[in-house]
Structures are given as structure tokens and as C-alpha cells.
Design goal:
The complex is a heterodimer of chains A (318) and B (290). Chain A has 318 residues and is mainly α. In chain A, 76% of the residues lie in helices and 1% in strands. Chain A has a two-stranded antiparallel sheet with strand order 1-2. A two-stranded antiparallel sheet of chain B has the order 1-2. Classes of the chains: A mainly alpha (318), B mainly alpha (290). Chains A and B meet through helix 5, helix 10, helix 12 and helix 14 of A and helix 4, helix 9 and helix 11 of B. Chain A: Keywords: Cell membrane, Membrane, Transmembrane, Transmembrane helix.
Chain lengths: 318, 290
């Protein structure tokens, strides 16, 4: 039986998620693994926005911030259970993306980049400056969602990092599955059409403005969920997660791995999350190496790592 | 009243620096369609290398010249090794290449010149001047005068010299410029050198007021990028207007509303302007080719 590209992607993803823990010598590795998953969730959203629809956002960390702070603030101020706060945060991010997206998605290329950047900067700034609500630059505590306790009562005992590794992995898997389904759906085809040429897509009957807005809202929800999961597992959230550098990191992860492919985005997230952990050995040379990697990959493998590798393999097979 | 004058004076000083950074963005964008996010690092290098030169015992003008020359060379290297090989890549890739370059430059600076924060001595003393109740540092006048001089010189260069016109021709239509015998490769190299030199000079001028360290580039790049966008990417007039407007808005917000939100208001106004003028204040509005 030949597997479709979608099935093989999901299979590879599941296999990696399940097999990796057998090689984990300590809980620390589960922790890093779950960070990879959290970043990958946000990056899958960027893959939809940038890879499918060809739109640039340099402000998506703003939505990560909204999702994260929703988990910190809603349970305390409105008495919402933290797990529900994840959903409410996602709804809020989607609504904000809808409101912001309508005007800014009319812009193209670098103009869209600066407008989205402005949005991200504004969110980060509000989070840092409204100390009475958000705890200011030092961040704010996030309540325990109690999910691990729930599992324990069912007889499944996991350490905290193990639990978050499994939970974030599951969310990522579902997110990747949805994104892959979207790819071949009418909405996904419309997005890919307008990526190629907006005029051509419009001629073929695609409502370009609506399709772009769809992609923007969907990717904002991914970013928001990632932010919520980060906040819940760290039990703390700081305004940095909404900052410009985090937005750049997310876009870089997507593009480095291959923005056109979900697996590429996830691989990019893994690479850029693990790289700093490895590079701490290099200490002062960390930035130099990171900058070099970004430049070299983009110059020599402009399609990103995974699509380039796939092309190489296919070329050999023929 | 004297408050207002004070805010205006500091707004113009900062705005002049933003205008110079925005001008650097504009020159490179015109020559190559690339928005160079490493532009802020040129400003940082200008400041940091002059500081190192002065610390090594060189007189300030010599140190500044060396800083400008070295930064120009780095600008040319950036074009040769990172931008030229990636010609034709999508916008996202180019953004990541230049951000990668800026992280790289920051990393190297941190290793070679250290992590400290430094300040250059003022060019003509620290005795403030009193103008209608507002105090103005002499260095502010240097910054403003320097920016004016650079804009005038560039205007003359682009309108009165053959090389300058070749640059303009290339930015209008690269292929047509090539067909009439313009060496567009040289134009790109020149643009990167020029843009880096302007950035470095801005760095030298501002470092007596704003202390520099290896990290200052990124926020300058963001402000300069925003200023260039506000004016309309590709227009030197837009860079000047955008830079000054941004500087004034920041100063007035910091003075009258809250210094915490001065950066926020800048970006807020930029969003508002882009809603009304999707290609910036002076941006052209080309029809899309199918």
C-alpha cells in the first residue's frame, strides 16, 4: 500500500514522538521535547499563513502572548477553569486576528510585515506596561490546570515533564492533522492559489480578502494555543513571549524547515529550539552560529531544509 | 511653551537619526528590493568602532573615519556574500537572511568589542544651550546638522552626478538600466557601501547622546524600518519625513502622555497611516503585473 504524503507525514511525526522518549536519559529531555512541541504548534500556524497563503506576519508572538495571559488572568479574575481559559484565549485571539486582519491584510509584502510587527509590539508593550493587571515585565503566575491530577485519579502516574511532553505532543499531532487536511480542502486550495498569484486566484473566483483573513485567524488560534500551553506548563508567563524576537523566531522556524510543508515547519521548530540548548556549550559564539545557520540555509536551500531534502531523495530515486 | 519646545528639540534630534536609518533602508531597497534588517547594526558598528578607536588613543575624527570605512566594507561584504547569492528569493527568505546577518554581526561585535555600554565624548562640549527656555545639547545640533548635510549631499549625488543617476535608473528598472550599459552589480555594491556609511555616521553622531552597546542595533532597525514605511519605502523624501515624524511623535508622547508608551504610539500611528495610505505617505502605487 502506498501512503499519501499526509499519512506519511503523520506517521513520521507519531513515530518520532513515541520513539524519542526511549532515548531520554532524564526528565530534562521531556521538558525540552515539550518546548519543541509548543513552538511547533505555533509554527504550524505560520506554515498555514506563510507557507500556504504566502502572507508575512512579524507579529504572531502577539497572539502567543494573548493565549498565554488568558490562562494566567481568566482563572483568577473570572473564575474560569484553566483548561477552559485555553479555549477562551483561542477565541479571543481569533477575534482579535479577525479585527486586526481585515485592515492589515490589504497590505502586501514589507508593508504587511511592518503592520503586523506594529501589532505585535503593541501587544507586548501593553503586557509589559499594565502591571496592575499583567504583573508587568516580571510576568505573572499561572494556575495549575489540574489535568495531571485528573490522570492520576485514573491511575496513570506521570512526572510533570512527562505529562506535558505527552499532552503537547497530542495537541501538536491534532494541529498537524488539521493543517494537513486544510492543505487539500477548498479553503487550502484557495490559499495556495492566492499565494501563486492574487490576480489569477481572483479571476478563478477566489474571495482573496476572505481567504487571507481565514488563514490569519487560523494561524492566530494556533499561536494562541501554543502560548496557553507554554503558560500552563511553565506556571509563569512573561511579556517576552509576545515580543518581536519571538515573532521572528517563529517565522524563522517555519521558513528554515520549509514553510510550505507542515513537517518542515515542525522540523524547523525542533532545530531552532534545540540549537540554543546545544549552543550553550559555545557560550559567546551562540549568536554567531545562529546567524550563520539562518543565512546559509536561506542562501543555499531557499525552499527550506525538509523540502530540499525531499527533492534530493526523489532525485536519487529516479 | 518651553516644555513643548524642549520636546520638539529632542524629537528632532532622535528623528534625525531615525531619518538617517530610514534613508539607509531606502537606498538599499531601491537598488535591490531588499529591506535590510541589518541596517541598525551599521549604526551600532559606527558607534562601537569609534569608541574602540578613541579608547585606543586615536583622535575622534580619525576613529570616526575608520569606523565609517570598516562599516562600509562590512556592508559590501553583506551584499557580496549574503544578498547577491540569494537574488530572487521570496521576501520572507530575504527578511530572514538580513535578520540572520544582524544576529551574526551582533555576535561578532560582542566577541571582538565586548559587552559593555560605551559613550563617545561630545564633539563640542556638554555645556547646554538655552533657546527660549528649552535646553539643547550642542551634540543635538551636530546630529541635526549632520543629517541635513547627508540629505543635501545625497540629493546632489542622485540628481547631479552620472553615477547617482545610474543608481536611480537601476532602482526604476534594473533590466532597462542593464540594457543601456549600467553596471547594476556595481550599483548594488555602491548602495550597500553608501547605506552602511550613512548608518555608521549616524552612529558616530548619536553615541555622545545615546550610549551604545552591541545590542542597540535591533531597536534602531525597527524604528528606522517603521519610519521608512511611514514615509513610503523607496522615497528619500519619505525617509526624511517618516523619521522626523516618528521622532516628534515619540518625544511628544513621552512628554505629555507616558514614556512607557512612546514606542507604542509610534507603531499605532504607523498602523493608522498604513490603513489610510497602504503604501506610506510618499509611496508610489504601481499596478500589479499578471
Amino acid at each position: 500500500m502506498r501512503l499519501s504524503s499526509k499519512q506519511s507525514t503523520l506517521l513520521v511525526l507519531a513515530a518520532l514522538m513515541i520513539i524519542s522518549p526511549f532515548f531520554f536519559p532524564s526528565n530534562y529531555y521531556y521538558r525540552v521535547g515539550s518546548l519543541v512541541f509548543v513552538n511547533a504548534i505555533a509554527v504550524v500556524g505560520i506554515v498555514i499563513l506563510t507557507g500556504y497563503a504566502g502572507q508575512i506576519s512579524l507579529g504572531h508572538a502577539g497572539f502567543v502572548g494573548i493565549g498565554g495571559y488568558a490562562c494566567a488572568l481568566l482563572p483568577v479574575h473570572l473564575g474560569v477553569p484553566p483548561a477552559l481559559a485555553v479555549v477562551l484565549g483561542a477565541v479571543l485571539s481569533g477575534a482579535v486576528a479577525y479585527g486586526v486582519g481585515r485592515p492589515i491584510l490589504r497590505l502586501k509584502g514589507y508593508y504587511l510585515a511592518v503592520a503586523s510587527l506594529g501589532f505585535g509590539v503593541l501587544v507586548a508593550m501593553v503586557l509589559a506596561n499594565e502591571g496592575w493587571l499583567t504583573g508587568g515585565p516580571d510576568g505573572i503566575k499561572v494556575p495549575d490546570p489540574g489535568l495531571r491530577a485528573l490522570l492520576e485519579s485514573l491511575g496513570i502516574t506521570l512526572t510533570n515533564p512527562q505529562f506535558w511532553y505527552a499532552f503537547c505532543g497530542l495537541v501538536l499531532f491534532v494541529g498537524a492533522w488539521l493543517a494537513l487536511n486544510l492543505h487539500d480542502s477548498p479553503t487550502g486550495r484557495a490559499l495556495r492559489a492566492l499565494h501563486g498569484s492574487e490576480v489569477a486566484a481572483r479571476t478563478a473566483g477566489v474571495d482573496v480578502a476572505k481567504a487571507k483573513l481565514n488563514a490569519f485567524v487560523i494561524s492566530a488560534v494556533y499561536a494562541s494555543v501554543a502560548g496557553s500551553l507554554l503558560a500552563l506548563q511553565n506556571r509563569l508567563i512573561t511579556p517576552d513571549v509576545a515580543g518581536f524576537m519571538h515573532s521572528i523566531e517563529l517565522v524563522t522556524m517555519a521558513v528554515l524547515g520549509g514553510a510550505g510543508s507542515v513537517l518542515g515547519g515542525i522540523f524547523g521548530a525542533a532545530l531552532l529550539t534545540l540549537l540554543p540548548q546545544v549552543l550553550t556549550v559555545l557560550q559567546d559564539y551562540e549568536h554567531v552560529v545562529l546567524g550563520l545557520v539562518m543565512m546559509l540555509v536561506m542562501i543555499f536551500l531557499p525552499a527550506g531544509l525538509i523540502p530540499s531534502a525531499r527533492r534530493l531523495l526523489r532525485g536519487r530515486g529516479e | 511653551m518651553s516644555d513643548l519646545l524642549q520636546f520638539l528639540a529632542s524629537g528632532v534630534t532622535v528623528g534625525a537619526v531615525y531619518a538617517l536609518v530610514a534613508l539607509g533602508f531606502t537606498i538599499i531597497y531601491n537598488a535591490s528590493d531588499v529591506v535590510n534588517f541589518a541596517q541598525g547594526e551599521f549604526v551600532m558598528l559606527g558607534g562601537m568602532i569609534s569608541v574602540a578607536g578613541v579608547a585606543a588613543g586615536l583622535p575622534l575624527p580619525l576613529a570616526a573615519l575608520i569606523a565609517i570605512a570598516v562599516t562600509s566594507a562590512i556592508g559590501v561584504a553583506l551584499n557580496t556574500f549574503a544578498i547577491e547569492p540569494a537574488r530572487g528569493a521570496p521576501v520572507v527568505s530575504l527578511i530572514i537572511i538580513t535578520i540572520g546577518a544582524s544576529i551574526f554581526i551582533r555576535g561578532v561585535t560582542q566577541i571582538v568589542l565586548g559587552k559593555g555600554t560605551h559613550r563617545l565624548p561630545s564633539f563640542s562640549g556638554d555645556e547646554p544651550l538655552h533657546v527660549f527656555g528649552a535646553t539643547v545639547l550642542p551634540q543635538s545640533l551636530w546630529v541635526t546638522a549632520g543629517a541635513v548635510a547627508i540629505f543635501v549631499a545625497l540629493w546632489l549625488f542622485f540628481t547631479r552626478t552620472l553615477t547617482g543617476r545610474a543608481v536611480l535608473a537601476t532602482s526604476n528598472n534594473r533590466l532597462a538600466a542593464q540594457l543601456v550599459g549600467i553596471n547594476t552589480r556595481f550599483v548594488m555594491t555602491l548602495s550597500f557601501a553608501l547605506s552602511a556609511a550613512i548608518g555608521a555616521l549616524a552612529g558616530v553622531l548619536i553615541t555622545p547622546i545615546l550610549p551604545t552597546s552591541f545590542e542597540v542595533g535591533i531597536s534602531l532597525a525597527l524604528k528606522g524600518f517603521a519610519a521608512a514605511m511611514l514615509g513610503g519605502m523607496g522615497s528619500p523624501k519619505g525617509a526624511l519625513t517618516g523619521g522626523l515624524l516618528l521622532g516628534l511623535m515619540e518625544a511628544l508622547t513621552a512628554g505629555y502622555i507616558s514614556s512607557h508608551y512612546k514606542d507604542a504610539v509610534a507603531f499605532f500611528v504607523i498602523l493608522a497611516v498604513l490603513f489610510a495610505f497602504p503604501r506610506g505617505l510618499y509611496g508610489s502605487n504601481p499596478t500589479e503585473r499578471v
